[in-house]
Amino acid sequence: MSSLVQLRSDRPGPAVTCASGAPLELVDRSARRVRYLRVSLTDRCNYRCTYCMPEQAPDYGPRAELLRLEEVEQVVAAFARGGVERVRLTGGEPTLRRGLVELVARLSQLPTRDGRLEVVMTTNGERLEGLAQPLAAAGLHAVTVSLDSLDPARFAAITRRGHLDRVLAGIEAARAAGFASVKLNTVAVRGFNDDELSAIAEYAWARDVVPRFIELMPMSGGELFVPGTLMPAAEVRAAIAQGLDGALRPVDGGTARGAGPATYHAVVGGRWAGRVLGTIGAMTENFCAGCNRLRISATGQLHGCLAHDDAGDLRAALRGAALRGEDGQPALDRVVRTVLGTKRDGHGFQPDGTGGPRKAMISIGG
Ligand code: SAM
Ligand code: SF4
User: Fold this and answer.
1) Distance from the CA of 2 to the center of ligand 2, in angstroms?
2) Which ligand places an atom closest to the C-alpha of 220?
3) Which of 42, 180, 253, 357 matches a 20 to 30 Å C-alpha distance to 173?
4) What distance in angstroms lies between residue 156's CA and the mean position of ligand 2's atoms?
């Protein structure tokens, strides 16, 4: 990567380019190419999932600290030109952000090097029933819904304030809306939902939805992480295979991945033969060497890694430049360059809950 990187604009908002005027190669210091951006739209949530948030929500800062939607668009446009192909909207709970549908409509029109930006979203599903159709019409490509239990009482217990019936209605609405794909995210928690993982997979497959099972990660300085509840991805797959009375085989020898870190396995034989599930083994099946992403928090902090607190301040760059009457390009340039130049090689998560960042999952969006 050129050390003379600069940001140049030929349309509203900065473009990521290098000194020669050619688009900046979004490649980090370990030669990993960034193609995927996760953007948190809010650090607020209508749930309080026990592994993600404390019972009492933290003191949220003033709303003015959040990136404005025009600023989100400005930054995402720059990354799309730099080689990002897909952006995932997350949170907190992204469906709480006013202007979401309009933002999706604008982002999904942004040009990339090869076409248009693919915009996808992860949601808890509570408000999806009414939003699925407008979001699909606005150009949202795909949606992932988090679902940790099919048992209403368990669901209420882990989310502290979620309604299973609303989420299930949201999943049906998403299926009807015509997204390219609907996926489920289930955090596997030993002693909580380890006895219903195959039932969740079957629920998904019966609806042409792809289930994905995530290992618990110790965010927030490990405060919400209960050692012993981590269920390794290999155990998740074994439990599901046993629940189906069948077997799973790695798709493409275990190398098949989507745009993200999930590895995919297919069912061999039986009623669900050929159906696929994903596992995200952040703790036990380290995928950092293939990391292709950067993350932007709701307040505009650019994070190279989920598991470390280092960040560059995109918001300060944009707003400081605006105050000075500049277009923000050189300042944004410095932030992107610094984050790419310092992106960590891997995480330090430990199964005892140590080694993770102080930042909360809710602030960065997974
Ligand atoms: N609120 C939305 C939702 O729940 O889908 C989007 C944000 S949420 C932080 C994104 C994903 O991170 C969810 O699937 C959630 O289950 C997962 N998650 C949250 N805390 C986690 C943790 N400590 N370890 C692993 N996954 C976690
Ligand atoms: Fe909210 Fe998602 Fe965190 Fe649950 S996992 S508290 S829904 S941000």
Assistant:
1) 39
2) 1
3) 42
4) 13
CATH of domain 36-363: 3.20.20.70
Q: Where are the alpha helices (DSSP H) in 178-311?
A: 197-205, 233-244
Q: Where are the domains of the chain?
A: 36-363
CA of 237: how far to CAs of 188, 278, 280, in Å? 11, 9, 11
DSSP 256: -
Sheet containing strand 86-90, strands side by side: 247-250, 263-268, 276-280, 210-214, 181-187, 142-146, 118-123, 86-90, 36-40, 293-296, 301-303, 312-313
Secondary structure letter of residue 303 according to DSSP: E
Q: Hey, which residues does 301 pair with through a beta bridge?
A: 313
| Ligand with minimal distance to 97 CA | 1
**Could you tell me the pTM of the whole model?**
0.91
Identify the residue whose C-alpha is closest to ligand 1 atom 4: 124
Cβ contact 353:217 at 8 Å: no
**pLDDT one-digit tens code per residue, 154-194:** 999 999 999 999 999 999 999 999 999 999 999 999 999 99
DSSP strand pairing (301-303 vs 312-313): antiparallel
What is the distance between the alpha carbons of residues 194 and 235, in angstroms, rounded to a whole number? 10
